[in-house]
Design a protein that fits this description.
Helix content: 55-70%
Oligomer: single chain
Number of strands: 4
Radius of gyration: 19 Å
Largest sheet: 4 strands, antiparallel
Number of domains: 2
Strand content: 5-15%
Shape: elongated
Order of helices and strands: EEEEHHHHH
Structural class: alpha+beta
Number of helices: 5
Strand order of the largest sheet: 1-4-3-2
Length: 156
């Protein structure tokens, strides 16, 4: 085992077919089979897909949102997508700072939920509440659970 800094690269080694895994608890680095390491990071894939979906949604808002709120929603959704992409990158690297990105993302999702419901027109309010209860709130809660789990592992 060799000691490495927290900024060590975690890329695969093409000659041995392994992935270097940094364990933040003890500063040790260990080689693992590439296939096994890739299966342990479903959160990274989830955050990455979320980033793409929200970025696409921001483009649609640019085309169809009311001009009075268009810039606000595009900016907010681009910010959300950026944090989702950051969380995906950190989670893919098993970086404990993914807990910080996920916690921040939970705050963004709750803010998104609140603004959606608070600014909804009467005819859109049922849709805003449905989206809040089925998408934004569960996503925020999932981010909190993930952040606590990663933070707990990093402290152990």
């Amino acid at each position: 085992m060799t000691h490495r800094s927290a900024h060590a690269r975690l890329d695969g080694d093409s000659t041995t077919g392994t992935v270097i895994h940094f364990d933040p608890r003890d500063g040790e680095t260990a080689a693992q089979p590439a296939g096994r390491a890739g299966r342990r990071r479903p959160a990274a894939a989830f955050f990455a897909v979320s980033a793409v979906v929200v970025a696409g949604w921001a483009v649609l808002l640019g085309l169809y949102a009311d001009p009075g709120v268009r810039l606000m929603w595009i900016g907010f959704d681009v910010l959300e997508a950026s944090v989702m992409a950051l969380a995906a990158r950190l989670a893919a690297r098993s970086d404990p700072r993914a807990s910080l990105a996920a916690a921040g993302l939970a705050v963004f999702m709750l803010t998104d939920l609140w603004i959606d419901v608070a600014t909804a027109t009467p005819d859109y309010l049922p849709t805003a509440v449905l989206m809040a209860l089925t998408v934004e709130l569960p996503y925020a809660l999932g981010c909190v659970v993930y952040a606590l789990r990663v933070f707990g592992r990093a402290r152990a």
